[in-house]
Amino acid sequence: EVQLVESGGGLVEPGGSLRLSCAASGFSFSSVWMSWVRQAPGKGLEWVGRIRSRSDGGTTDYAAPVKGTITISRDDSKNTLYLQMDSLKTEDTAVYYCARFNTKDAFDIWGQGTVVTVSS
Amino acid sequence: QSALTQPASVSGSPGQSITISCTGTSSDVGTYNLVSWYQQHPGRAPKLMIYEGSKRPSGVSNRFSGSKSGNTASLTISGLQAEDEADYYCCSYAGSHIFYVFGTGTKVTVL
Description:
The complex is a heterodimer of chains A (120) and B (111). Helix content of chain A is 0%, strand content 52%. Chain A starts with a strand and ends with a strand. With 120 residues, chain A is mainly beta. In chain A, strands 2, 4, 5, 6, 9, 10 and 11 form a seven-stranded mixed β-sheet that branches. Chain A is built from no helices and eleven strands. Chain A has strands spanning 3-7, 10-12, 18-25, 33-39, 45-51, 60-62, 70-75, 80-85, 94-101, 107-110, 114-118. Chain B is mainly beta. In chain B, the strands form two sheets. In chain B, strands 1, 3, 4, 7, 8 and 9 form a six-stranded mixed β-sheet that branches. Chain B is globular. In chain B, 35% of the residues are buried.
């Protein structure tokens, strides 16, 4: 079964850091591009960033609002995607989804999401 | 970069057809044929319904169809069913600086 499972969310104080993980199974993780998408409480979806496959350079792109405060990485040996978030602000409070990014510029598989709450 | 504009809500009776619009600009929807649509039930993860403007992934009902005209993309749900009640989001590629922009979201209600 094709599956993505996020973990690592929780409560963190403003200015703190958090690393989210996304474990992939059921497909060839190393050959696909992956993305993170977030959704603030009661709000819409917001693209956060993506990482290319190693064969396509393994490089990353980030949304302007989070650029400089997040780092997306991957460990293909563990079939795992990561999102390192630093200098967190209250407005970063959201459900964070990892999603497989297909060759048609669409997010075709999504995890169940992990909740990040930034509050003092 | 502002979100793509969608109506806040659309409703219809079972069996009817409804259309959700997604209005962008010449920098995103108008230039790229890379609009995707997602269905999200409350408390659940989004699900891909349409990609490249009008193509359906395997397993998605043919009651869902997509189109585009100028800067506006549209999702049509025909033969509306109770299970179609959900939030729907469009998304478009917006070039190599903005990358991806989502729509504001539309709540579909089946009367």
